[in-house]
Batch of 4 targets.
Target 1
Amino acid sequence: TTVVPSNYQTYFNKMMDAAQFLEAKKLARRALGKCTQQKVEEFLLAFCAVGTNVKPALLFEAAVLTPDVLLKLSDTLSEILKVPKEQETHLTCLVLEEPEKDDTMLSSDFWGPGTLFLANVPAVLQNLDAFINATDQGALFINVSGSLNEPTVLQHGLLDNTRKQLKAMHSTLLRASKSNERIVQGMAGGTQCTSLTLAVGALLGYPLIYSLPLDEQENCLAEKDLQLIEVIGQLGVIDAVSTKSPITSFSVPLSLLDDRIRERIHAWERDMEAKFQSQAVFNPEAQFLKASVNLAAVAL
């Protein structure tokens, strides 16, 4: 049983009731298309996480949405769910690449052309800064090329190229932010220069990023022992059962889990705890779940 602090309950007494939450669910279901009630609720939690700066960005994979429709959905949900105005103004649609003419579907197994993110711009910029300026870059990026027998940390030339890619993403987003653009095209810089796997990891705020060569689709994580780390968020509403689901999750190969990477993960967990404590939408106590997994195939 979770003990809800009085200020947290006061927030919902004043800002949201069950009727508002149901209204938000109906709106999200219409926009996302055919999906289960659980998926809709998970989406709303993820949306709140981005709006309150707990999570840098939200990936849209449940349906094909245009940037304009995504922003309209975002603005309406922000009003219903009472996302703070200063946070709402930061919500921007990021497009990794222009969609291909025959691109009709997005799934969790394919970060394809046209993939959309709803991003909290200051949070994304802060996250990119942390990766670009980190003193121990070798503990942050993991090469999962399908040509390898085991995943390894990036070294030398590959590491320098990765840093350049992240700087390019940072520059694109910073320019758009200064000009108040709410739709930013080409965040991945085009297929010729930036790995989509790298872009996704950076935008979603993972403490460690998998890197896959541009011309490869297979990775070397199949049947490897991984540690899966999930952050669980719980959203409470009046006269309705509180709902909770993973806000974000990532994995790290157990073979690489040395002191450097452990400290990187611990620092990320401390940062997440601080973010949960500084907002008033979720239960302020962050929940971390860790499990060892070994899968026949790993989708990135």
Note: The first strand starts at residue 57 and ends at 60.
Target 2
Amino acid sequence: MPQNEYMERHRKLHGRRMDHEERTRKKEAREVKRVSEYAQNARGIKAKLFNKKRHAEKIQMKKTLAMHEEKKSKKKKEADVPDGAIPAYLMDREGQARAKALSNMIKQKRKEKAGKWSVPLPKVRAIGEDEVMKVIRTGKRQKKAWKRMITKHTFVGEGFTRKPPKYERFIRPMALRSKKAHVTHPELKATFSLPIIGVKKNPNSPLYTQLGVITKGTIIEVNVSELGLVTTGGKVVWGKYAQVTNNPENDGCINAVLLV
């Protein structure tokens, strides 16, 4: 193995930290302040080079924004020759047609990517880390406090294998793991017990999404193949999103509404 690939090898063997995405996001958020401070304090040739680079980046950003502009754009009609004579006050008017910059399908895909659904519960109560996680003390004299036990319902996949208990940072108890949800179809007004495929988004934290924590307002993906839903093209819909509408830790089950 080449000497410089030990980090990639370690990542493949042991994976990343559980909060890797959160730390990366925070680092990227801080980057703006770091760049701003450098821009204010840079002097001489370094300042010139930096400003030249920023200028090029801003031009590229403006071009990208103009390309993805979602406002209605106006464009001139092709000049069609009228049959008869037209009045003088209509001579200098230009025919305008409105064209959408992006098609509805692309807009829809972008909304789905951004996670903007029309959901039954648009606002949910924020849940703190102390409410979701309980500190587990370890060590000979109970001095170490790096372990956490999840106190809410969670979902883990079929092929989930626990880490050795000594090295497990986030403990998800077996009694609080859920595999099925009671999903109500808003149009059919019927409830079905459907298997959960995964946790799409927990509004409280990206870490909870990664750990599969299910709280009120969480978007989950459920297997709807047994409902017999089909697309306009005739294909059977396999997975669909649903929003959790109850507090699973209080009721002992997960109730959700299908997003149609």
Note: The helical segments are 6-14, 20-41, 44-67, 104-114, 129-132, 206-211, 248-251.
Target 3
Amino acid sequence: MGWSGIELYYTPGSPHCRAVLMCIKALELDVDLIKLDMYQKYEHKKPWFVKMNPQHTVPTLNDNEYILWESRAILCYLVNKFGSSCPKKSQLYPTDPEMRANVDRLLYFDTGTLYKNIVDYFHPQLMSGEEADERKANALKQSLEYIDLFLEKTSYCAGPQLTIADFSILASVTQLEGMDYKITAYQNLYAWVERLKSELPYYEACNSAGIEMFRAWAKSKNESYTSKGK
């Protein structure tokens, strides 16, 4: 297969990038994956990348000079553009208004509630060595309880079939593995995660190395605070 002209700038440790990688695999797209070193070389702050994406975030998609960032926007764009010719692929972002609205609701829930609460809880611990905040811990638990409740009635997050909402939420939830945060208390959620790990043939290729990369980084941060007596 020849070069499609599609490039994805990413870093494996980012859950947002992992979600897009899963979508690319599900759509069977030929994409040039360009890995950025954001932690040592700060490649996302290089002038050429800032010119492409002023927010200098990943993932960033370059589809033949059309530039798009924000992972959930990329997920929608990819299925809208490349999934319409195949029913199995188009169902990843259904065209039915009600089904699509369910997917959108979960995408917004992920960015505004679930992932936000993950960041709110862990970021101060990782970046400043602060003690865990009970209020933020409870907000994260509430977010996980919501997903657990959603999955009582459906096999997937947004309904009876796999959608991009599953990619987004799966990536966010599995980021917790890098912090050794257990979700076994949420039976429906835990069963869904374990099922998708075996059900998606591309899960390991898109996620395992990135989760371990994040785990190693988080461990090094925690050890640095311990050595300083924090």
Note: The mean pLDDT is 94.
Target 4
Amino acid sequence: MYISKVTAVVHVCILTVICFLRPPPAKKAKLAWEGSYKEDPFVFFTEDEELWPIMRDFYQISDTFPNLQLLVRCYEGKKRTVYLVSKEVKDILQYNENSLKVINCGLRVMVRSRNDKTKAMSLFRLAQDGIPTLLPFIHGRRVEIKQEDAILLLTEENPHIHKLTAEAREQLKPLEEGSIVMVYEPDMSNPDAVHCKMVFVGWRGKVTVRSFVPKNDRRHFLLLCGVDVEVRQTKRRQLALEREAKGQTANEEAEEGAGQEDEEEGTGEDVAMATRSDDETLATTETSDTVEEGTSAIDSDAQSSIKE
């Protein structure tokens, strides 16, 4: 009995020593980005997304478009940019939300318009980046243009609608203000025309229309249309230099005119001062003559009295 108790105590002591000698459990390793800047979340459209019916009806997007693959970067507030991803990328983002850090993802297809005071239907405009992918699904707000229309829209900032061809004006007439898609279909029967399709987005205003094309894409389209971009840039520089020269000349003329006016004012003041000094001199001379006459009269009287 005594031996068994001693054995139990020894076993307890051994277990205690083993517990103290065992290293502490390893801490969970932190991921490289934990504790750093937190990126905005990727929020996918759901079936009850309130923005999608507005976009679909305004641009007449077909029902075959995968709207559930659209995403934004915020849960609440103003959604500024809408991106499109493939189904595989969507699955990767959703299944690795807590273990994968993604900085940027998706193709930009729509951007919130700066003019929030417009109608709700035109709050989101089409983006040039995603129009090649989105175009097959869009059946509304498309304007077929010709080569001269494309050159006009790519070279002028806000051309008036009446500058476009009659066909383009007729298509723009029933459209309300907002984003549009301008499509150029090549005319193979014309050997001088551009033989490739061009698509770019724009904005239909009240009386003007403009294109929203990045600088490099604009240059590419103009080269396709046979426009010498270098010559146009040289002409723009020359016009800018001429305007600056005219502005400097006008400023110099204005300064010279102001200087002449100051000189004329100064000359008038000098003449007035000279006139005043001449008058004062004349008055002084007259006074001195009067005094001399009085003095000579007194002297003659004195001399006569002495003689008497």
Note: Residues 281-308 have pLDDT under 50 and may be disordered.
